[in-house]
Amino acid sequence: MMNNPATTAHVLIEALPYIRKFQGATVVVKYGGNAMIEDQLTIEFAQDVVLLKLVGLNPVVVHGGGPQIGELLKRLNIESRFVDGLRVTDEQTMDVVEMVLGGLVNQDIVSLLNQHGGRAVGVTGKDGNLIQARKFKIERHTPGLDAPEIIDIGNVGEIVNVQTDIITTLIRSGFIPVIAPIGVGEHGESYNINADTVAGKVAEYLGAEKLVLLTNTPGVLDAGKRTISELSRQDVTRLIEEGVIGSGMLPKVECALQALTGGVGSVQIIDGTVSHALLLEIFTDSGVGTKIS
Predict the structure, then answer these.
(1) N or C, fewer C-beta in 10 Å, the chain?
(2) What is the rounded CA–CA span in Å between residue 192 and residue 208?
(3) Where are the beta strands (DSSP E) in 5-72?
(4) pLDDT (tens digit, 9 = 90+) per residue, 257-277?
(5) Residue 232's Cα: distance from chain center in Å?
(6) Does residue 6 sit within a domain?
(7) Residue 145 pLDDT more than 80?
(8) In terms of residue numbers, what domain contains 90?
(9) What is the CATH number of the domain that holds 121?
(10) Taking 60 as the threshold, does the pLDDT of residue 2 lie above it?
């Protein structure tokens, strides 16, 4: 808590140009990891999102829920299996995914935002055909075989379209949309989709000014394990080629590059375990993670 009035005034003055700059801008925030589990961090996240809305930005929250899904599957004695980091999602597992993401986690976040002065509404990608998807299949190329091996991982989807009218309607009405990463197929089937991917595509289709990915790391690290504050597309490509950006961060930076290609203004990969990380990244000069633009 700040006891020095001069320090408080300095913080507010530093934020002012950023508040003016992003007035009316859409900011898509992917919420997950420790920031979603630790009680104090969840409260601070809710306060940050509500403040963004109150000062004139349009936050849109896309959430994950992998640990919560895994915990319920364990209690139900259903085995969790992964291929290339993706959860194998058979019909039984998909039922659990929908229950956890579309029900428990989504509504917990909505309630949290509302408790802290926001007006949040929860939706899944099935509502209003928001996230239209098709089955995702993994291809494995084996030396000596002419055709790649196709690995079926069940109801895991890839996005073919985002029908944004339901989100824009909520934003115009003063609400904060909270989106569960479940897609819908052309025959009404449900698909489990990676939350980073959903956040990136939602940001792209909304023409968002910013995409913020909350992670469990301080951002993109250099070879000396120091956080890199800002990167260009060329920098990212070079660091991947040099092996500096490894497997854990690779999906996030690829998501960032795709979002930038789709017209998103900038992508921030930030440490969700830092107190009020979202406000610090958007409204201060130094930030708390890595900006890719």
Answers:
(1) N
(2) 23
(3) 26-31, 58-63
(4) 999 999 999 999 999 889 999
(5) 20
(6) no
(7) no
(8) 23-292
(9) 3.40.1160.10
(10) no
Whether 205 is in a domain gets the answer yes
What's at 226, amino acid-wise? Answer: R
Q: Which of 75, 158, 163, 66 is nearest to 124 (CA)?
A: 163
Per residue in 38-78, pLDDT tens? 899 999 999 999 999 999 999 999 999 999 999 999 999 99
Q: How many domains does the chain have?
A: 1
- 3-state SS class at 274: coil
Euclidean distance between CA atoms 153 and 198, whole angstroms: 18
Token representation of residue 100: 């956890």
Provide Rg for the chain, Cα atoms. 19
What's the residue count for the chain? 293
Beta-strand relationship, 230-231 and 266-271: unpaired
pLDDT, residue 142, reads: 66
What whole-number distance in Å separates Cα of residue 50 and Cα of residue 166? 20
* CB neighbours of residue 153 within 10 Å: 19
Cα distance between residue 250 and residue 289, in whole Å: 16
Residue 129 maps to a domain: yes
Q: For residues 115-127, give the mean pLDDT.
A: 97
C-alpha angle 221/227/229, rounded to 5°? 115
Does residue 118 lie in a domain region?
A: yes
